[in-house]
Amino acid sequence: MSEFIHNLTQQLAQWRRMFHSYPELGFTEYLTTYRIGKMLEEWNYSLFVGKEALDSDARVGIPNTTLLTHFEQKAKEHGVEDSWLCKMTGGNTGLVATFDTGRPGKHIALRFDIDALPINESTHQSHIPASEAFNSINSRVMHACGHDGHITIGLGVAKYIYEHQSQLVGKFTFLFQPAEEGGRGALAMTKKGWLAGVDRFYAGHIGIKEMPVGTVAATVKGFLASTKLNVRYHGNASHAGINPEAGKNALLSASSAAIHLYGIPRHSAGTTRVNVGKLEAGIGRNIIPDEAFMEIEVRGETKELNNYMADHAKRIINAAAEMHDTKCEITTVGSTEKMSCSSSIINDIKNACEKSKYVKNVISETSVSGSEDASFMMNEVQKHGGQATYMLFGTKLDYPHHHPSFDFQEEVLPVAVDTFTRIIEQENTYVLNRGR
Amino acid sequence: MSEFIHNLTQQLAQWRRMFHSYPELGFTEYLTTYRIGKMLEEWNYSLFVGKEALDSDARVGIPNTTLLTHFEQKAKEHGVEDSWLCKMTGGNTGLVATFDTGRPGKHIALRFDIDALPINESTHQSHIPASEAFNSINSRVMHACGHDGHITIGLGVAKYIYEHQSQLVGKFTFLFQPAEEGGRGALAMTKKGWLAGVDRFYAGHIGIKEMPVGTVAATVKGFLASTKLNVRYHGNASHAGINPEAGKNALLSASSAAIHLYGIPRHSAGTTRVNVGKLEAGIGRNIIPDEAFMEIEVRGETKELNNYMADHAKRIINAAAEMHDTKCEITTVGSTEKMSCSSSIINDIKNACEKSKYVKNVISETSVSGSEDASFMMNEVQKHGGQATYMLFGTKLDYPHHHPSFDFQEEVLPVAVDTFTRIIEQENTYVLNRGR
Amino acid sequence: MSEFIHNLTQQLAQWRRMFHSYPELGFTEYLTTYRIGKMLEEWNYSLFVGKEALDSDARVGIPNTTLLTHFEQKAKEHGVEDSWLCKMTGGNTGLVATFDTGRPGKHIALRFDIDALPINESTHQSHIPASEAFNSINSRVMHACGHDGHITIGLGVAKYIYEHQSQLVGKFTFLFQPAEEGGRGALAMTKKGWLAGVDRFYAGHIGIKEMPVGTVAATVKGFLASTKLNVRYHGNASHAGINPEAGKNALLSASSAAIHLYGIPRHSAGTTRVNVGKLEAGIGRNIIPDEAFMEIEVRGETKELNNYMADHAKRIINAAAEMHDTKCEITTVGSTEKMSCSSSIINDIKNACEKSKYVKNVISETSVSGSEDASFMMNEVQKHGGQATYMLFGTKLDYPHHHPSFDFQEEVLPVAVDTFTRIIEQENTYVLNRGR
Amino acid sequence: MSEFIHNLTQQLAQWRRMFHSYPELGFTEYLTTYRIGKMLEEWNYSLFVGKEALDSDARVGIPNTTLLTHFEQKAKEHGVEDSWLCKMTGGNTGLVATFDTGRPGKHIALRFDIDALPINESTHQSHIPASEAFNSINSRVMHACGHDGHITIGLGVAKYIYEHQSQLVGKFTFLFQPAEEGGRGALAMTKKGWLAGVDRFYAGHIGIKEMPVGTVAATVKGFLASTKLNVRYHGNASHAGINPEAGKNALLSASSAAIHLYGIPRHSAGTTRVNVGKLEAGIGRNIIPDEAFMEIEVRGETKELNNYMADHAKRIINAAAEMHDTKCEITTVGSTEKMSCSSSIINDIKNACEKSKYVKNVISETSVSGSEDASFMMNEVQKHGGQATYMLFGTKLDYPHHHPSFDFQEEVLPVAVDTFTRIIEQENTYVLNRGR
Prior knowledge:
4 copies of one chain form a homotetramer. By secondary structure, chain A is of the alpha/beta class. Chain A is built from 12 helices and 12 strands. The first copy, chain A, is globular. The N and C termini of chain A lie close together (5 Å). The model of chain A is unreliable at 432-436 (pLDDT under 50). At the A-C interface, helix 8, strand 8 and strand 9 of A face helix 8, strand 8 and strand 9 of C. Strand 8 of chain B pairs antiparallel with strand 8 (272-281) of chain D.
């Protein structure tokens, strides 16, 4: 396998840079999906694109039509075929690719997230994507969370299976998931049924916890269940000097909601969180504000704690409307579940990587915060008796995730591909003890 | 008439001191009503006591049973006959007394309020009621707004009519009203129908605006319409350390309500007011408070403005319950209407008092703030085409109304009686140009 | 004079359309000032441009450098000479033009405001500026308050004086004021001393109160004193899931401030107002917001009431910073004073317009709300014994002021010029009884 | 030992009932201290009473003079000698009693709290103290937390030492601590230096965690560090209708503080708590409230977390004063520290109780919430190398602690005395293997 990885290394960097230079926001990954799909097609994967891959109605946080149309149009200009666009139009991006060896063996599923972020990428020459000219050509969109790397890793693993199919058994399902940011895409893929009968589920992330290249964490704990809400208040505008009594103040509804949300009582059963991350209200100094918008999230150590927070939050948001006689709309735009990696999987990963030249160190478990919608897939697999884990792949980071100068060491790519393929080799091959 | 006043002056002080020493709170004026009634009975007035005088269901802000029973029991001990108590039991105090001369003439109504306040009277020797030993014998109850004087003035006027009945025409209705404080009693008397067909209505107050004894204001403007609300929030108690999530925080509902009430938008049509005058919540430091109580008032320059404030207030109070998942009860415990004195009456009063030795100066109009439930009666009279006014009778005040050391100059009593009786003489006599 | 107006009418519409098509925001009126100035130069006015016309340090609410540079650059491209730009650079726009007849007579000052608004003008064909192709060529800037008309009227009056100088006496001062919107420019011109020794001051507005073309209000009442504040809160960002305790929440500071600002106690001495017209805070759902921005205004019926509101507002804004451990910056970006038109001026205006064919009806006084910084000039004139008024010129309006489709009837332009010139003729001419 | 306990059982119930019938609030335990002291005096203990026992200046939450004087006077009436009162006057209650065997051995300290609560005891016949006539004779004061039992247990243990002194070694210190409720007395005793050189420290509580009589928990975990604050806001009163602008609203300061206190950010390092348990503000509906009072507590899993909460709380309380232009006073009226029982002590307790007929079951550790100021003493002992624990003694409870009907099974008293004395026997005797 070392030879496969060795030969692939340059290719991995090229793929990564291609995806990096053309980032697309969640549910607008039209060209990204197409490019992934065209390669997998060549490698004889069965493809399920867009509406075939996800339960369209289970998506949340879909961008507005203007944004969707803009990216569809651009994708078309970049050569995405109509037959593909047709399956994706309206924000139904992402794809599922399956490969069946025809031989009995485990059903292994792998998830790679493909969306980018609404961040304006740095053009500073100290930022390698800028100095080496593969930075984003899409204004105010950037792969600032490493999903360009994740796509690349998925393609590397898919190529391995294609090239080593004669030695493999069982079945493989690749989920190239849209809209991980904000926890919006995983549930829609899960609801389509892809995880039924899966024996082993693997996902992962580069970075997050700073570890050197070559270090891999086999499992993580600490991801919180979460719910993301967008809230709009609609009131009445009126002139603040002439007839203030005619106004219904949406800005005050939002302000009341914000203040009271942070006061949701602490819970004796465990960790909870709440944040109003954005508030925008009003258009001018002398007008009673008639519109307000808020981005809110709640989290909990368990599903129950997250629901406790979400229920309180919704009641408070509604009460804040009544407080100022406005109307409110609450939209759930994302969610994640609590995630528990299967600890039984740890030794398997350690064994698989024992002889790797790329993986220097496998840590059993690391602790992170934050939230991940792969949790929906993992919980589905575990519910049906399968095992699932979420790994971290070490890389030095000069800037944190979601920063305009975020970048990672491309050396992490072969490490991750090696980890996934060694696991696959160990779990789903009938040619043991090949020299590596 | 000067002789009548002259002879009565000492009697007025005696009456005032008797009433002062036995103050009763609104709707508990059992002994007060009885004492007034017994005198009027002697003077051949037709009496309507308690439930005969007011629409019992239209009362608001009735004290609790413990308090009612306490004062009924005390009244009994002080000799109030059972036949009287029977008409008043349960907080139906006050009386209406009518005198019909049998001769055609105007129907004149006069209103005198009779209740005291929950204030502990000063026992300092610089306080004349204390040093001259007529201060309150009822602990924590005090005539601190001069209604002891008002009762006295009413009796003086009633005695005048009795003694001068041969010279008078028309009909007279005296309303000795309970529970003026908090705006609780006037509406109940008004709804009983006493003001139908009234041609002239007179009420008044001693003090308020500081003017010297001998100065009378013929009309006042500036009284605001008002609504008084009591609010109770009911939540759930829980241990603040052990399980804060189980609490439903009534203290926070009350706090949210308070803060938002003051933010009711100012109104372009005129003056509005709001106040939370009292807030009591919680029983101990480590318990999530499950009960809260608030005393609230709103005011408006017009009925519409007052309703605007009351409507907003009620919505906010309810929203504050929803905000913290508590229940709330809103009770209207009092109200007043906007009052507009009939300006046509000013010259009549000036003329009537022109030759008085007691009334030195009649001011056409003065401006006050605050609220008065005589407004209900005045509006009723004016609605039917009658004329109404609310006068002020000057007296020096060392301490403001509602102060534990409030007192007034007893010299104001003959001035007020002289004013009322001269008006009556002018309006309702057939013996003109008597020497005075 | 009718002939002068008649001949000028078409010219007025042309001027108006030129100014309409190139609107500039307050303190960026580089081309506007230049165009006005070049005409006045031809008519032998003495010019004081930019820093010569205003006290630069007394300006408030100056746009940021990017915006200033952008408009200066555009002005240059449109041919504004360097010698002019030099006097205006850095947001010192506007000009004062004086004309001295050399003959003894009154000193008359006239003020015309010249700035536009940050509004994107409608391109709908029902909008006359669009269908007749004189709509704004500056994106997101629009003359939506009629100041294009005001400039035009000022030029018309200036031309009249130039052409009739042989018949006139006294002295004339034209203040073409920048940045009236937000109350930012008048004080800076006033402080330069232009109003010292002025006998008569005239300003005015088209529209505001809907009256037909031909109706003029000689005075207005009801403008409130006002103060406009911008507030920025600076806190600390932190991840809302990982370490919420490290955040200092600027969004909550702004929300607390907003809620408490509306609760500034009503004042018994008169009308007060407060509004938070805009609030923007936070950048993403899962980040504790570290920045917040608010646009606030307070108003009062008098200077004292306005100060009462502003003092309370500032204290509350600071307290809201301390409440959440953030820092705040308060910037005063505009203000207006209470304005009282000199009522003695009413009959003069009525007399002057009596024989006009354009002015059909002069109303003595009308009542408006809102605020105007011409108040600074008027108060200065009145303080030194002069008389001042603010007139309204009727025009039908299909959309209110500040609306993207705002437009007015150009027929109001000759009406306004006729009003001003007839006043001038009446006040400052030595050839009486000319046939008109 | 069983015989000692057997013979003492009836006496324990008598003592308990005597103390139950005369409860005294924290820092007013004049008669309680005297009664304890007089018994210990008989048993040859060295006594340190009142100011001798505690650092007077380190007390917090001292009652007002009226209350202190009331209880001192009552104590005098009940026979407390002047020499004793003199040492205790002004709220310096409690005592320390030491017994030195003169033989080398461990220094064992035991703490028993002696104060009662401001609760009106039930007089219902289903409440055993009422039906068996030993309920509180002090109106609105009640032993509702079992400290009457604690005193009794302490006396039982003291008597054991007195009677078995010939078999014992080392030194014994009994701390009969005042004002445990609210965490007010322990620090003052600790600061007097009693814990220096203590090898073993034992404290405990009956009930808390419901366990049957005979079950003992050797250690507890979960007590939070805490700080208790009283807050007073002082503003200005004014008439809410006449001049609301003249008021400075203390009720609103308290309300703002309450709402914002619950919003102190959750802390990633562990459990935190906050509660406003009581709020009282304002005196009348139509007066802007000038006074407000709040009882507040914060808690944290560690000292640092508790300090984090207390620091934020104080800043918020001050900001709420500034918000409404009031003044505030913050008084720390109690505190507790985090408590960690020495786990090494568990087996010692289990061994000591192995053969007891009274102690049926020793649980190693139980988990509770709440806070205890014995933590100050325990931390002091552990800081100097000693070991300390806090035990729980099971009893069935029909009503929770602090309830007007709280009562416990008196059978728990001999269980607790047996536990303490067996530990003492095991640790500090030279006569081993006595038959029991």
